[in-house]
Specification:
The chain has about 250 residues and is of the alpha+beta class. The chain has eleven helices and nine strands. The strands form two sheets. A six-stranded mixed beta sheet has the order 4-9-8-7-5-6, sandwiched between helices. A three-stranded antiparallel beta sheet has the order 1-3-2. β7 and β8 form a beta hairpin. α1 crosses α2, α2 crosses α4 and α6 packs parallel to α8. The chain is elongated. The two termini are about 55 Å apart.
C-alpha cells in the first residue's frame, strides 16, 4: 500500500491525499504550482487546499498569490493518533455498555483457516480456569504463547495434536468447560456454549487424558514445550504418510 492509499485509510479523500503528499515534498507552493505538480485538477485545487487548511494539515501564507505549506508529518500524525485513540477508547466503552448478552447455547459458524485460528487465539486469551486443545502440531506451535499465558493466569492446560484423528486438520477447543470450538481448519468451525456439546467435549478430553500417553496435561517450560512440538510434528507426518500409503506398499 503506497503513501496515497495510506493517507486515504486515515480519512483523506483522494485529492486531499494527493495535495498533501505533494506539498510535503516542497517548502511552499502556490495553488497554481500545486495543481501543476499534483494530479489534482486546477479547477478544484483551491477547494482542496481550503479543506486541508480547515483540517490543520496545511498552513497558508496570505499574499498575492497566497502560498501553502504542509503541516509537519510528525505533528499531523500525532493528531491523527490521538484522535484515533480517543475514538477507539470511546467506542470500546460504548460497545461494552451495549454488549449485555450472555454466552449463547446456539451454534455460530466461523469459516476459513485464518478466522478459525484467530478465534482460537481469542478463546485461549479469555480462558480463566481450564483450557483443553487439540489441533495439528504445526498450528499448535502458534498457540504456545497463549497457552503459557493461560497457565500463568492459573489455568489447567491440556494440549494434544491430531495424529490419531481421521481429519488431520481438526480443531477441538474447550475453555472453562463451557465454551467450545469444533471444526476443521480447511473448512469451518462452530463456536458454542451449548451444554450438550460442551459436556461431550469434557468427556472426550477426560478420556484423552487417561489414554493418550503422548498428550501433555500441562505446559512446563517454553524450551521443553518447543522440543515436544517438534517431535510431535515429526510423528504426525510419519503417521499420516503411513495412513496415506497404499495397503500393498504398507505391507511390503
Amino acid at each position: 500500500m503506497d503513501t496515497l492509499q495510506l493517507l486515504q485509510q486515515i480519512g483523506l479523500t483522494k485529492y486531499e491525499a494527493e495535495a498533501y503528499a505533494t506539498l510535503v515534498q516542497y517548502d511552499s507552493m502556490t495553488g497554481y504550482e500545486l495543481g501543476k505538480q499534483s494530479h489534482v485538477p486546477l479547477s478544484r485545487i483551491y477547494e482542496i487546499l481550503e479543506r486541508l487548511v480547515e483540517k490543520g494539515l496545511v498552513l497558508v501564507q496570505p499574499g498575492e498569490p497566497p502560498r501553502y505549506r504542509a503541516q509537519e508529518p510528525e505533528y499531523f500524525l500525532g493528531q491523527v493518533r490521538a484522535t484515533m485513540e480517543y475514538t477507539l477508547d470511546t467506542l470500546a466503552a460504548s460497545l461494552t455498555l451495549l454488549h449485555s448478552r450472555q454466552p449463547s447455547d446456539e451454534f455460530w459458524v466461523v469459516r476459513g483457516q485464518r478466522a478459525t485460528l484467530e478465534r482460537v487465539h481469542r478463546l485461549l486469551g479469555e480462558a480463566r480456569e481450564n483450557v483443553d486443545l487439540v489441533m495439528p502440531a504445526t498450528h499448535l506451535a502458534e498457540m504456545q504463547e497463549d497457552l503459557w499465558q493461560a497457565q500463568e493466569r492459573g489455568c489447567h492446560v491440556y494440549q494434544s495434536s491430531t495424529t490419531t484423528m481421521s481429519a488431520p486438520d481438526s480443531v477441538l477447543v474447550l475453555c472453562d468447560q463451557r465454551l467450545a470450538l469444533v471444526g476443521t481448519l480447511s473448512s469451518q468451525a462452530i463456536v458454542t456454549s451449548n451444554p450438550a456439546l460442551t459436556l461431550t467435549l469434557r468427556g472426550y478430553f477426560e478420556y484423552q487424558r487417561l489414554t493418550n500417553n503422548n498428550a501433555r496435561s500441562d505446559i512446563v517450560s517454553r524450551e521443553r514445550g518447543i522440543a515436544w512440538l517438534a517431535w510431535e510434528e515429526r510423528k504426525q507426518r510419519l503417521l499420516w504418510n503411513v495412513k496415506s500409503a497404499p495397503s500393498g506398499a504398507a505391507q511390503r
